[in-house]
Amino acid sequence: MTSLALYNLKGGVGKTAGAVNLAYLAAAEGWKTLLWDLDPQGSSSFYFDVESTHKNTSKKILTEELLLEDAAVGTSYNNLWVIPADLSARHADVVLDDMKQSKKKLKSLLATLKGYDIVLLDCPPGISLIHDNIFQATDVVLMPNIPTTLSMRSYDTVVAYFQEHGLEADKVKCFFSMVDHRKNLHHEIMQQFYRDKVFLKSYIPYLSDIEKMGVNHLPLFEFANSSYAAQCYRDLWHEIKKILP
Ligand SMILES: Nc1ncnc2c1ncn2[C@@H]1O[C@H](COP(=O)(O)OP(=O)(O)O)[C@@H](O)[C@H]1O
Ligand SMILES: [Mg+2]
């Protein structure tokens, strides 16, 4: 089983859109796929229209009152399961802080899963104990980055954090997200980063079809399968498969 976290220190950069569409593509290709929604906002759960049948699922998983595999809910799509998030996910740091090996809890939970080919984590923004867990637990930490100055600073912050905390900085991979072709600044920052840093070649432009996922309450491919946006995510998935262990 390979694991991929959609992560950024910042919110609103395309983590959830990425997690949902990449999970959909993996499953459509026949990979047995689990998307674990770790964000109390529960946006991935919303797009896949799943709700937990348990109360306080997110907290109970961490305290082992609920087995991770039992928290997975089937979706309307073949090969695709989701662990929905609820508001109890906001207590994750407090719950973890009380534990021994508090930075390795997620890793040990993921090790209990059997039969999945890939697990994707839709992460909340921030950099705290839950994120330490995510960084330890996953093979690839995939960061969508909007090519703006502040967004790129957050990339530098994350890489420095990995280096300072003895984490494998090599597992951080980035792609540009919400790229606006009309903005010179976006072009300039992309040129600079492609020259100096490790960014995937595929990127996701700012496209209204992606925004419409919310209105349609669906993954992109269910209502715009032949769109440019869908092709961009397919290209991204194709490139990601090459870097997965
Ligand atoms: N490439 C894109 N083009 C246009 N809108 C996007 C794009 N990616 C995400 N969005 C929209 O921007 C908002 C934030 O995206 P989301 O994926 O939820 O970010 P995050 O999970 O990082 O907070 C959502 O309303 C989403 O539909
Ligand atoms: Mg999100």
Tell me about this structure.
This protein is an alpha/beta fold and 245 residues long. It has one domain (2-243): P-loop containing nucleotide triphosphate hydrolases (Rossmann fold). The protein has helices at 15-28, 43-47, 57-62, 68-71, 92-97, 105-110, 129-137, 149-164, 184-196, 208-216, 228-243, and strands at residues 2-6, 33-37, 73-74, 80-83, 118-122, 140-145, 172-179, 204-205. An 8-stranded mixed β-sheet has the order 3-4-2-5-1-6-7-8, sandwiched between helices. Helix 1 packs across helix 11. The longest helix is centred in the middle third of the chain and has 16 residues, at 149-164. The chain starts with a strand and ends with a helix. The model has no long low-confidence stretch (mean pLDDT 96). It binds adenosine-5'-diphosphate (ADP) and magnesium ion (MG).
